[in-house]
């Protein structure tokens, strides 16, 4: 009986996850379409709210479809309390659920990830601090950008 359930559930889960991923891509594309100051200025107004609500909800839904139920204990620190927060160790796809639960903060990511089809568009909507492994000054530039965002007095979202 469990084999039969797996044969039926696996394709349904894959179809649902692909559909959710396409909705997330569409939402990210709409929110970043014709964005002024792309990447240099923070998203504001409806664009930021759309990213926070839509992508957060879709990410939670995708994890639920995959069979994960996340229970949060406590309360995440707000932007004024902690402009930067750390999630560690960040070595798996579970980092996305942390993003969804904390309001879709900006993240630090490899610059190459932004050119990945579909995921790159979604990642770009989070306005990540892009780290280039080819640039010898990348570490210094990343620290400077994180500092700039942290000291922006709430203009930028939290940085994870």
What does this protein look like?
The chain is mostly helical. The protein has one domain (1-151). Helix content is 50%, strand content 4%. It has five helices and two strands, in the order H-H-H-E-H-E-H. It has helices spanning 2-32, 45-66, 95-101, 119-125, 138-150, and strands at residues 108-110, 129-131. A two-stranded parallel ribbon has the order 1-2. Helix 1 packs across helix 4. The model has no long low-confidence stretch (mean pLDDT 85). It holds the Pfam family Acyltransferase. One of its GO terms (biological process) is lipid metabolic process. Residues 70-156 form the Phospholipid/glycerol acyltransferase domain. Keywords: Acyltransferase, Lipid metabolism, Membrane, Transferase, Transmembrane, Transmembrane helix.
Strand count, sense and barrel status of the largest sheet are: 2 strands, parallel
Low-confidence stretches: none
Strand content: under 5%
Count of alpha and pi helical runs: 5
What overall form do the CA principal axes indicate?
Answer: globular
What is the H/E order? HHHEHEH
Mean pLDDT: 85
Rg: 17 Å
Helix percent reads 40-55%
Give the tally of structural domains.
1
Gap from first CA to last CA? 43 Å
């Amino acid at each position: 009986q469990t084999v039969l359930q797996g044969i039926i559930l696996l394709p349904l889960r894959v179809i649902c996850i692909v559909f959710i991923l396409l909705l997330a891509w569409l939402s990210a594309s709409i929110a970043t379409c014709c964005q002024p100051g792309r990447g240099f200025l923070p998203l504001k107004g409806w664009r930021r709210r759309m990213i926070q609500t839509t992508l957060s909800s879709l990410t939670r839904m995708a994890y639920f479809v995959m069979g994960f139920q996340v229970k949060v204990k406590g309360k995440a620190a707000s932007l004024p309390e902690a402009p930067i927060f750390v999630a560690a160790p960040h070595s798996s796809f579970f980092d996305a659920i942390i993003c969804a639960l904390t309001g879709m903060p900006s993240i630090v990511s490899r610059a190459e990830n932004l050119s990945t089809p579909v995921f790159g568009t979604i990642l770009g909507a989070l306005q990540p601090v892009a780290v280039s492994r080819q640039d010898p000054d990348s570490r210094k530039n990343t620290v400077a950008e994180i500092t700039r965002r942290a000291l922006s007095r709430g203009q930028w979202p939290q940085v994870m």
